[in-house]
Amino acid sequence: MVSLEENDYPAAAYAPDGKLWWDRVAGDGPKGATGNLPRAASWLRFNVQPGERFTTEQVRSALGITAEHFQRRLRELRGLGWKFDGMKDSPGLNAEYRMREYGWWPGADGEKPKTTEKIDSGTRRAVMDRDGSRCRICGVGAAEPYPDPPYDPARITIGHVVPASQGGGNSLDNLRCECSRCNETVRAESGSGESFENLLAGVRNLRGADKKTLLRWLKIQSRERTSLDQMYDRVRLAAPGERAKIISWLEDMIRE
Ligand SMILES: [Zn+2]
Q: CA dist 52 to 99, 167, 200, Å?
């Protein structure tokens, strides 16, 4: 285990913004370059030489990570081309690991290897059907314009509730429809710029039942679709002639 002073690191250890790769946090870089996995990878790259031993505790304390299952991280690193021996390979290692070969880290040349399995088309369709091709976070539907400028049409993708980079898999309950805007973490952190007073006034004006629903949605960071939302999508996606019939049926009903 080599311990280096911060200014002893080679230039490659620094991101273009001058920070050490492993000191970067969400918002410091593009998606995939921050987060505990890329931080652990870059820390190991510049602090543990091939042949040297390390423990998960050392990585965790260097990065200030407390609440996390590091065993899973190590598995993920293996998926990114890292090779190190553990107790299984060499019983003498006990809780230590021995570095054999570096794999991907954020400053490395080349794309991050795809470690996650592709979502198969059947699963993709099942998620789209279940969520009505609407963003589960903000509620916008596929190709519907956003309610604010530049009113561009929403693009719906399949996202992971627990990110794939944190070990989230492709099971139906870990997948959901997300629009490309909600998918961007940077935007999610900067806020919309609306004044807090304005926001609070809007929340205050909600009916009691709506306040409850809003609270529930905010807590789970997801919008459930009501049976009315689901009916709207079913009619919206019906053949144009059938949709027109439903519209005139509703008009007759409401007039009665
Ligand atoms: Zn959205």
A: 6, 27, 55
